[in-house]
Amino acid sequence: MSAAERAVPDAVAAFAAFVLPALWLSSLSASGLVPQLAGLGAGALVTAAAVGSVLRRIPRFSTPADRVTLLRAVLVALCAVVAVPHLFAGGGTDLLLPVLGWAAFLLDGVDGAVARRTGTASPAGARFDAATDAALVLVLSVAAAAVAGYWTLAIGGMYYVFVAAGFFRPHLRATLPPSFSRKAIGAFQPFALLVALLPGIPLAAAFPALALALLTFSFTRDVVQLETRHRAGLLHPGAARTGSTVR
């Protein structure tokens, strides 16, 4: 089956892989009907966004790397099913959420390796990967809010604020040179949130606090650099910052 023919079956498989586990996970929650429905809705939204990333492509295609990313997105969606009811109910989280989160986190990078190995790396795949990374951080920040406080939501929300700002200031969507520190800080975000979700970790809230400080520094540095280059006329106005390089 060609890459174009795989897109719809892969999308259907992703939804199927989400629905039954999501209903089971939701049934385990004792937080009430409304939080359960909110969790299911959040998970469905994550899954729909991932499926849409594949189906909206022109021409439409799906690669082996995309199937890995779809699996990661389903794991993120299942994390949302568990995390959102905890946000309503307050209190700690059980081990199920960190297990799902660590699985999604550890799969990060596998899709890129598969794309390079199969020669199917693409800007569309890179954008899909970046969006899945952002969704994981957002969901984990929701989960951590039930443990450390609502301030952790700033970790998950910062990426989306930056993207929204790009609609008003298009030069913020321009491509920046690759940065090891930016990648390292990005990878530290889900790690720090997952550590905070593990039971029995001393000073667990210190990890997301450090993550937030580093993320604020990284985004501030990028904004300053983009604004400076824009004023100097060094940016291509139509360049998209996310997904501008292949994974």
Task: Briefly summarize what is shown.
73% of the residues lie in helices and 0% in strands.
User: Could you give the distance between the termini?
Assistant: 23 Å
CATH architecture: Up-down Bundle
Order of helices and strands: HHHHHHHHH
Which structural class do the helices and strands define?
mainly alpha
Low-confidence stretches: 237-246
Helix content: over 70%
Question: What's the tally of helices?
Answer: 9
Q: Report the major sheet.
A: none
Overall form: globular
- CATH class group: Mainly Alpha
- What amount of the residues lies in strands? under 5%
Radius of gyration: 18 Å
The CATH topology label is Four Helix Bundle (Hemerythrin (Met), subunit A)
The figure for the number of domains is 1
**Could you give the count of β-strands?**
0
Mean pLDDT equals: 88
